[in-house]
Specification:
The complex is a heterodimer.
Chain A lengths: L3 H4 L2 H8 L12 E7 L4 E10 L2 E10 L2 H14 L4 H16 L3 H10 L16 H15 L6 E2 L2
Parallel strand pairs in A: 1-4
Antiparallel strand pairs in A: 1-2, 2-3
Chain B lengths: L16 H5 L8 E2 L2 E2 L1 E2 L10 H14 L9 H20 L8 E4 L2 H11 L9 E5 L8 H10 L2 E5 L9 H7 L4 E7 L11 H10 L3 E5 L11 H4 L3 E5 L10 E5 L1 H6 L10 E4 L4 E3 L13 H17 L1 H19 L5 E3 L9 E6 L4 H10 L2 E2 L1 E3 L4 H7 L4 E5 L6 H18 L1
Parallel strand pairs in B: 3-15, 5-6, 5-7, 7-8, 8-9
Antiparallel strand pairs in B: 1-2, 4-10, 9-10, 11-12, 13-14, 14-17, 16-17
Helix pairs in contact in B: 2-10, 3-10, 4-5, 11-14, 12-14
Classes of the chains: A alpha+beta, B alpha/beta.
């Protein structure tokens, strides 16, 4: 097992304790619910998308440090991105955590900015769903899926 | 098992935990470079060598289908499987071997009762459960209520995680047809006063199903003294194989119930016009069962009997007392489930670290615990927590392992500051 510090980096602890963009968003025009039935993690994601650009992102819910930090970091990364850019970011983030080829995964890291602090999760397979819950919920929100997203 | 704080019982001198540990090959394992400290016994227990070898020997020497063949192997397999049924009968002191139905596990046993006994339920009939049930003792009743129009009632629990007996009594009434309750709560460790509850239910004419999944490995169970109508437990929590469990039912009740699944072994005669059913317990055992699992369960029971459930209960209780005392010294730790009468389960939350993060850090120290809702979401809701960390003890755990749990918890503090 990798060092726990690779998983619980300071940035992650900080974002889990003080999540950014946390709380409801009046006037949102997209939202979705994410649910991790095995863990009980729950989050609701709100988006304000204007002319294809994500202007505002907020979320609320309860979860572990990894899922909360991931949602918080995602909310920062998405602002000002187009819907297509957001989906592409999700694909790269997913590859960072799940790509079997370490080199390819590492290649993603550079383009992910602050999100790469979550790279340590790839060595903890049981926790990957914690880190991706917010992103799956984002996908559902952009596509206006009514049913809550489940990581199972 | 006695009240947690009141009557410390002595572990008999003959109980040698270090010697017993040698019976469990998996305990020699290392996890992430650390010795395995297995404290997830309420999820499933580890298996002694005798059980592992008995299953292997069945496949190596006697494998054949049972109750069918005239040949030697089939006869040997049948004898071994039926001997296991006798072991189960003795283990829970059932009056007759016909009252022991082999199933896949506790969940299947509950579903069997809901499907078969439940056929007589009508709109307005009531089923009473408690607020500390496992999902497998909630959902089958909800499904039955949807089918039959029956109503599900729930007796509440208090903040210690004990059953509110006033609520239980109040919800029993002339329409109560069935009461289903856990003997020991998997999420809280609470031991329910089942004897008293059964008497109360009977006085209202209801039949009683006891979910014994968490009780059978830790308490002596005597179904005749309890006078329960049905009792269910799983092999894999009882140091036996997965995929085998037991439904005990009073013969008269089982006799009055329609078959659950149709197929081979459960019939007497089949024509296209109609079929007739086999005798108990085979009426409820359609298809080829988990033969090796059943035989392995018989071996596990023999192993437990050789140690003695009383000694095991006393040992686990000593570990629970030690862990409960240690927990009081951990800042920000809140126990979930503080019933006076508890089995060896320590469920808790830390005020600023989520259970899953605790679980990952404990795992990195070789300590295996369960984190999550423990298939008891209503219990989590009652205590206002999304998940807990649960350490659960078995006969092979040691005081040193309790120390290891708390040393690993100190590591959580190190990481989270």
């Amino acid at each position: 097992m990798s060092d726990l510090r690779d998983l619980y980096q300071e940035v992650i602890i900080d974002h889990s304790r003080r999540p950014r963009n946390f709380g409801p968003m009046p006037g949102h025009n997209h939202h979705a619910e994410g649910f991790n039935p095995l863990c009980g993690d729950k989050l609701t994601l709100y988006l304000k998308v204007v002319d294809g650009i994500i202007e505002e992102v907020r979320f609320e819910g309860a979860g572990c440090a990894i899922s909360t930090a991931s949602a918080s970091l995602m909310s920062e990364a998405l602002k000002g991105k187009s819907e297509a850019q957001a989906e592409e970011l999700f694909a790269r983030f997913h590859a960072l955590l799940t790509e079997a080829d370490e080199k390819q995964a590492a290649n993603q890291a550079e383009s992910l900015g602050k999100l790469q602090v979550l790279a340590g999760v790839r060595d903890f397979p049981a926790r990957i769903k914690c880190a991706t819950l917010a992103w799956h919920t984002l996908h559902a929100a952009l596509h206006d899926q009514a049913a809550p997203v489940s990581t199972e | 098992m006695n009240a947690l704080t009141e009557r410390p019982e002595a572990v008999p001198a003959t109980f040698d935990v270090m010697r017993l540990r040698d019976d469990f090959p998996i305990l020699e394992r290392r996890v992430h470079g650390k010795p395995l400290v297995y404290l997830d016994n309420a999820a499933t227990s580890q298996k002694p060598r005798c059980v592992i070898e008995r299953e292997a020997r069945y496949y190596a020497e006697t494998n054949a289908n049972i109750h069918r063949g005239i040949h030697c192997l089939s006869q040997e397999a049948t004898d071994a499987y039926e001997a296991a049924r006798d072991s189960v009968r003795r283990f829970i002191n059932a009056g007759r071997r016909e009252e022991i139905v082999f199933v896949r596990g506790t969940t299947e046993a509950v579903n069997l009762i809901a499907a078969s006994y439940g056929q007589r339920f009508k709109p307005g009939d009531e089923i009473l459960i408690t607020g500390m049930e496992h999902h497998s003792n909630i959902v089958p009743w909800q499904l039955l209520c949807e089918r039959s129009g029956a109503i599900l009632r729930v007796a509440s629990i208090d903040d210690a995680g004990e059953l509110d007996m006033a609520s239980f009594e109040q919800q029993l009434g002339p329409h109560t047809r069935l009461v289903a309750m856990t003997h020991v709560s998997n999420a809280l460790g609470t031991i329910n006063p089942v004897r008293k509850m059964i008497d109360l239910a009977h006085s209202h004419g209801a039949v009683v199903l006891v979910d014994g999944a968490q009780a059978a490995p830790h308490l002596e169970v005597d179904v005749q003294t309890l006078d329960c109508d049905f009792y269910a437990f799983s092999g894999h929590k009882l140091y036996g194989p997965t995929g085998v469990g037991v439904l005990y039912g009073k013969a008269a009740l089982l006799d009055s119930m329609p078959p659950w699944q149709g197929g081979g072994d459960m019939i007497r005669q089949v024509t296209f016009a109609r079929s007739t059913w086999n005798d108990l317990p085979y009426k409820f055992e359609a298809g080829t069962p988990n033969i090796a699992g059943g035989i392995g369960l018989g071996t596990a029971i023999g192993y437990l009997e050789s140690i003695g459930l009383d000694a095991i209960a006393a040992h686990e209780h000593a570990l629970l007392r030690q862990a409960t005392a240690r927990a009081a010294d951990v800042p920000g730790l809140r126990l979930i489930g503080t019933a006076r009468d508890k089995a060896g389960i320590l469920s808790f939350v830390l005020d600023d670290v989520h259970a899953h993060d605790v679980g990952t850090i404990l795992d990195s120290e070789g300590v295996a615990v369960r984190t999550g809702h423990h298939c008891a979401m209503p219990v989590m809701e009652h205590f206002g927590v999304p998940a807990t960390v649960r350490a659960s003890f078995a006969l092979y755990n040691t005081p040193g392992e309790v120390d290891a749990l708390f040393a690993a918890l100190a590591k959580v503090r190190e990481v989270f500051g």
